[in-house]
Design brief:
With 246 residues, this protein is mainly beta. Helix content is 9%, strand content 41%. Among the domains are: 95 residues; 62 residues, Beta-clip. The chain has two helices and 18 strands. The strands form four sheets. The protein has a five-stranded antiparallel beta sheet with strand order 1-13-12-10-11, with no helix packed on it. Strand 6 and strand 7 form a beta hairpin.
Length: 246
């Protein structure tokens, strides 16, 4: 009778038993690189700017040209951001409402904000500065901030805003500003904004038979109705890239 092969006999001859463990790795997840700010500084005003106010900010020793109030608060804040971007010490700057966010060129020192004040006018908002470390580590859950940048998710954030996990650790010494994210999505499509859309969670809002595109809205997105995440900003009816959830 022919001999039969028994793997256990081989293992016994080698003096051991099988301890092989095989881990399945899911390879169908999408990955994409996103801009991730490093160390940042914030300049927060206690109230909106008013007529004749003058804004002064110094970033890492570079003095911004003073900005005088013009037209309205939003216009003036935009002018401040423009003036900040002219400084050699500033990589990027943006604002939302009464908060100015500054990413410095020098990531080793971070944002050193001095002489930040508002003068002139019949009254002046008080100014508060702070430094924010947004460094991302491998495996960290991530989300978009209000400017569409990639930032670490906070404990307690809704699963709807967390759209994936960082693939690698961010290296601030090299000024690394792009991070690859393994997304929770399985497909990206070019959709159509239904109402203004910023980077973040969206729900399906019907099909446009004229453009033959799916419409996506950010109105009242919940865990039950989330369709995916807009990967950029778009005005109403404008095309927007969307990563669709499984």
């Amino acid at each position: 009778m022919a001999d039969t092969f028994d793997s256990n006999d081989v293992l016994s001859a080698l003096g051991g038993t099988s301890k092989t463990t095989i881990y399945k790795i899911e390879l169908d997840k999408l990955s994409e690189a996103f801009i991730a700010p490093l160390k940042q500084g914030t300049v927060t005003l206690s109230t909106d700017l008013i007529a004749s106010n003058v804004v002064a900010i110094t970033v890492n020793g570079s003095v911004m040209a003073p900005v005088t109030f013009g037209t309205d608060h939003a216009t003036t804040m935009a002018a401040v951001v423009t003036a900040l971007k002219l400084l050699p010490t500033v990589a990027t700057a943006s604002y939302a409402l009464d908060v100015i966010t500054i990413t410095p060129v020098d990531q080793r020192s971070g944002a050193i904000l001095t002489n930040c004040k508002v003068t002139a006018g019949s009254s002046q908002p008080t100014v508060t500065t702070a430094t924010v470390a947004n460094r991302i580590f491998q495996g960290m859950p991530v989300k978009f901030d209000t400017a569409g940048n990639l930032v670490p998710a906070a404990a307690g954030d809704s699963p709807t805003v967390i759209f994936g996990n960082a693939y690698q650790t961010q290296n601030p010494e090299h000024g690394q500003i792009e991070i690859t994210v393994i997304m929770k999505a399985h497909l990206t499509v070019i959709g159509q904004a239904s109402g203004a859309v910023v980077a973040g969670p969206v729900k399906y809002d019907g099909w446009d038979t004229t453009t033959n595109r799916a419409k996506y809205s950010q109105s009242s997105v919940t865990y039950a109705n989330i369709a995916g995440w807009a990967l950029g900003t778009a005005a109403d009816t404008v095309e927007v890239k969307v990563a669709l959830v499984n």
